[in-house]
Design brief:
Blueprint lengths: L11 H8 L6 H9 L8 H12 L2 H6 L2 H5 L6 H24 L6 H12 L6 E7 L5 E9 L9 H10 L4 E7 L9 H15 L4 E8 L6 E2 L7
Parallel strand pairs: 3-4
Antiparallel strand pairs: 1-2, 1-3, 4-5
Helix pairs in contact: 2-3, 6-7, 8-9
Length: 225
């Protein structure tokens, strides 16, 4: 049955307008984005299949164009639309962090990092450079590695801090394995960076590990800073 044949109060779009987006299931939100289904399936049915196939929205968002378009009914145009939506979400969170103290909303920081790092298949080392009021100056990828390790050079990190005239920084890196546990190497690197940046009066506020769908792990909250 097509969604247009459903009772109005059961249709995803009408439910969103009446109750708000937060009250819809993942498949319902995705169905609104898809707009139409495929032969024999409504948009909601297709959305449920996609959530199941990719293991959730994170998996869907991380899918390559080839993986996405291999699903019947999904083509390059829909993939481009999805990527545009994701980039707008990243930019919106970035703008919010630039307007106020980045740590007035820890949830926003974690959401921003998850959008940027959680589904990468290679390891990256990321920095959020902040001003004296802890507002975001620049978010940038500093180093990129393999699935198992990333080479991070403290001297280059200090140079980037001076380039941006930063007063503080939040570091983050991802674990493609999906395990958000700091290694001894992670802890040692963080100590080294704290010491190096202290020489130029830049404070390391936190270091997050982003891994899959679990909340990013905070070194500060774990007492590792």
């Amino acid at each position: 049955m097509a969604i247009t044949d459903w009772p109005k109060d059961e249709r995803p779009r009408e439910r969103l307008l009446k109750h708000g987006a937060a009250n819809l299931a993942d498949a319902e939100l995705l169905a609104i984005f898809l707009r139409v289904g495929v032969k024999g399936k409504s948009a909601v049915d297709l959305a449920r299949d996609l959530v199941s196939h990719f293991g959730g929205l994170n998996g869907l968002f991380a899918a390559s164009e080839a993986e996405f378009t291999s699903i019947p009914g999904l083509g390059p145009a829909k993939y481009a639309q999805l990527q545009a939506v994701l980039e707008m979400a990243r930019r919106t969170l970035g703008e919010d962090m630039r307007k106020k103290d980045a740590f007035s909303s820890p949830t926003a920081v974690r959401d921003y990092l998850r959008l940027n790092l959680s589904d990468l298949r290679h390891e990256v080392f990321f920095a959020l450079w902040l001003d004296t009021q802890h507002r975001l100056l620049v978010a940038e990828e500093l180093f990129r590695g393999t699935l198992s390790q990333t080479s991070v050079y403290p001297r280059e990190v200090v140079k980037r801090a001076l380039t941006h005239n930063a007063a503080a920084v939040v570091f983050a890196h991802n674990h493609p394995s999906g395990v958000a546990e700091p290694s001894h190497a992670d802890e040692a690197l963080t100590r080294t960076l704290c010491q190096a940046l202290a020489l130029v009066d830049v404070k390391v506020l936190d270091h997050f590990i982003v891994a899959g769908q679990v909340p990013p792990l905070s070194f500060a909250e774990c007492g590792l800073l």
